[in-house]
Amino acid sequence: MIKNCYVSNDVKNFRIDKVVVHRIIYELKKEFGFSVLNLELNFVSEKTIHAINKNYLNHDYSTDIITFNYGKTLKEFEGEIFISLPDVKLNAKKYGCKFNEELLRVIIHGILHMLGYEDYSKKDYIEMKKKENLFLVKLRHLIRKDRIIYDN
Question: How many angstroms separate the CA atoms of 57 and 3, rounded?
């Protein structure tokens, strides 16, 4: 387990394998060389993420992930990542991939935001997608047998 990395799950019909989530963060930490001062990964409902999106970002809709980076540098992580498991499930269906693969992509996406990557412009979006795809391939072995999330 990574010190100062906390994983919570507020969605009753999904169970999180926290060990696998920590392993994903550990592998990304090794790759990018960041340290974790305080990182919270919160798995939430679409209602919760909608409220966060509306209250903090002034967007009146649900989304799969919201990242808040409170760190002073991009190499010392201090922040929160909120992931809507129902939205991830919808996206997996929409894109024709397995739920755990889409969840892995979203976790990678959040870490890339913590590292300073943005996806506002088309150019930045394409660069971020390339990184996501690269690490999806590198870390896919961690999600074999649907180990991150169990959808009850």
Answer: 29
**pLDDT digit string, tens, across residues 31-68:** 999 999 999 999 999 999 999 999 999 999 999 999 99
CA 124 to chain centre: 18
Q: What is the CATH number of the domain that holds 93?
A: 3.40.390.30
Q: How far apart are CA 84 and CA 89, in angstroms?
A: 9
Q: Is the pTM of this model over 0.90?
A: yes
Neighbours of 121 (CB within 10 A): 9
Identify the domain containing residue 85 by its residue range: 5-145
Counting the structural domains of the chain, the total is 1
* Residue 18 three-state SS: helix
pLDDT digits (tens, 9 = 90+) for 54-106: 999 999 999 999 999 999 998 999 999 999 999 999 999 999 999 999 999 99
45 in any annotated domain: yes
Dihedral of CA atoms 58, 60, 66, 72 in degrees, nearest 10, equals 0
